[in-house]
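TL;DR need structure tokens for one chain.
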Amino acid sequence: MGSALETLCGQAFGAGQMEMIGVYLQRSWVILGTTSILLSLLYIFSASLLKLIGQNAEIAEVAGMFAIWMIPQLFAYAMSFPMAKFLQAQSKIMAMALIAAGALVFHTILCWLLMLKLGWGLVGAAVVLNLSWWLSDVSQFLYIISGTCGEAWNGFSLKAFQNLWSFVRLSIASAVMLCLEIWYLMLLVLFAGYMKNAEVAVDVMSICSNIWGWTFMVGIGMNAAISVRVSNELGAGHPRTAKFAVMVAVVTSLVISILLSLILLIEKNNYPSLFSNNSEVKQQVSELTPLLAATIVLNNIQPVLSGVAVGAGWQAIVAYVNVIAYYAFGMPLGLVFGFKLDMGVKGIWIGMMIGVIIQTCVLFGLTYTTDWNKEASVAKNRIKKWGGHGDSSTIEKQNGSTLPSTH
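>> reply
TL;DR here they are.
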């Protein structure tokens, strides 16, 4: 839900409406804090819910205990994600990186102390996660209020409680868009557990999914970058620069993903040994590598296009695209290939790829046919409607930035 800020903060920053960025941040805190209260009920009753769906009683009890200990992290994330988007919109990435690096060092030391040295087990893991997240939150908040963000933070404001419903709708659309993508992969791994040789199938899917996840970090980085860039440029009234930024991001991500895929293909008989000693698992991972390589290429273009959608505020449209591509085509085809045609993990993965291909093609068509002048006008109206002054002041005037302009 917090990814709505990528659209709003980015466009407000581009339009020079600096004071509204802080208001949007606070609105997101109000909405995500309220949502966290509701979600905490799932944490509290997770043991009973897991038993209800047939999970092993012992596992359910342990998971339920861990979930209750993790409630503080839920609220920490509700604070953290909006602050990250608030800082990203202003391109204050180095500060975020340094805070994250410090939190990681703290997290690693505390993990060793509580989990290994003192033997606290899962409770220790929960305590470490809670403390690490809140350390990061406090550090980011102190950085924000220290004056380094200028007019973007003018203290707490009652404006945070205005236009909440419009904000909620965009937040829900953002959540649906992202959840449909995340759940898609998780469900495919879950289905692998119902295959004949379930242990091997889950191992193969997990290995390939992890590699996909690591390479996907490139796409995630490009997603954040293009989302900020598009929203900034649309807010500033620079449609041609926004369009040019999209082209650069797509080409860059494509080149990097092709290089990563080539490395995997060259080492397809060697890298599975890093994950497993089981010969059958290694063989299946090696056989699945060509499909994995193709997926990496596709899936590093798709986040860029999703980032464009977020920057422009198209979350609701992309949510519909994801439902059709993933759940009307990709998942049913994966189940047919994997179970009915007895193609196993490869069949599930082929179905998943088809879903990604459909989604990528639709997003590409949507981006290609976009009237960027119209989108810049929509961004200006959105800022005016939700509390800005309606002036399309450029970033250069308000913030001393030197963004290139092609208009």
